[in-house]
Write a structure and sequence with these properties.
Largest sheet: 7 strands, mixed
CATH class of the largest domain: Alpha Beta
Number of helices: 10
Shape: elongated
Number of domains: 2
CATH architecture of the largest domain: 3-Layer(aba) Sandwich
Distance between the termini: 68 Å
Order of helices and strands: HHHEEHEHHEHEEEHEHEEEH
Length: about 290
């Protein structure tokens, strides 16, 4: 004996009629005309050779005993259908992505984001490249990396702007380096954007200062700060717990910087796009936009 196939669309209309009690309301739920829904119910009844609804003049659709029996099974079949479709549409991403992240952001903001991406896409290898924003943008243009975060005074276009945060002066907990003059400042290399902002602020405030620990890596800077030998500019969200923001040292206010996401303009792979989407979503959840933005 031939077993007929059940059209999922017929079951959707059947459930809509059963739950709303009316053909007209059900038609809106499944985005079809009332006549089309009525035809679908008739076709479903033909499949089973059963009457599923009692026909009444008041147009209230009342399930028959056979209709009630089908309703529970229809819910189960629809749930299974939707689960299969959702699972099959998920892309099993694999491959390698070269991600650039500035020194001042990589350790403070990225570990939880990269960890969650690895858990969702274990077959993707992320090669992390850490450098200054200027060098990372150059490497991106040359094709050496696929996407990069940047810390810049300017805010990128919507979708590529992740967060805005203010630079703050940071020093040792309980230290006095911020009160000493000339002020010792641990600065990055000459192409570091924070360096230029800090110098402008100090010159504008006419504070005598001297640069020390001019390196690209943050570990020597951290050691210098913890030893209370100097102060340094950091984004407020990236200050480690072992250091503190200096609010009473009489130091000039520093400007806001934006954390932006830059992606190669051409030849972007699907896995690169997925990592970019993940980073945007993660920043939106973890680092809510401030009122000044």
């Amino acid at each position: 004996m031939h077993t007929p196939n059940i059209d999922i669309a017929l079951l959707r209309s059947f459930v809509a009629v059963a739950e709303t009690g009316q053909m007209t309301a059900a038609a809106k739920v499944v985005n079809r005309s009332q006549g089309a829904v009525s035809q679908q119910i008739m076709r479903l009844e033909q499949v089973f050779g059963l009457i599923l609804f009692e026909r009444r003049k008041n147009q209230i659709a009342q399930l028959t005993r056979e209709g009630e029996k089908l309703l529970a099974q229809a819910h189960r079949l629809l749930a299974m259908n939707d689960a299969v479709v959702a699972e099959m549409r998920e892309t099993d991403f694999a491959g390698e992505v070269r991600l650039g992240v500035p020194h001042d952001v990589v350790g403070a903001l990225m570990p939880p984001i990269l960890r969650s991406f690895r858990q969702q896409h274990p077959n993707v290898l992320i090669t992390l490249v850490s450098d200054s924003t200027k060098r990372l943008r150059a490497t991106l243009r040359e094709g050496g990396i696929d996407l990069t975060l940047t810390t810049e005074p300017e805010r990128a276009d919507r979708g590529d702007h992740l967060m805005t945060d203010q630079l703050v002066w940071v020093g040792a907990r309980g230290g006095d380096a911020g009160h000493r003059r000339p002020l010792s400042v641990a600065l990055g290399r000459e192409d570091c954007g924070f360096r230029a902002a800090a110098v402008r602020a100090l010159v504008g405030a006419r504070i005598k200062w001297r640069p020390i620990c001019q390196v690209g890596s943050l570990e020597p800077v951290f050691a210098t700060l913890e030893a209370d030998m100097a102060v340094a500019p950091f984004l407020g969200q990236t200050v480690p717990e072992r250091l503190e923001i200096l609010t009473e040292a009489g130091l000039p206010a520093l400007p806001f910087f934006s954390v932006n996401l830059r992606v190669r303009s051409s030849g972007q792979s699907a896995v690169t796009g997925e990592l970019a989407r993940h980073i945007r979503d993660a920043f939106e959840r973890r680092y809510p936009r401030k009122s000044h933005e």
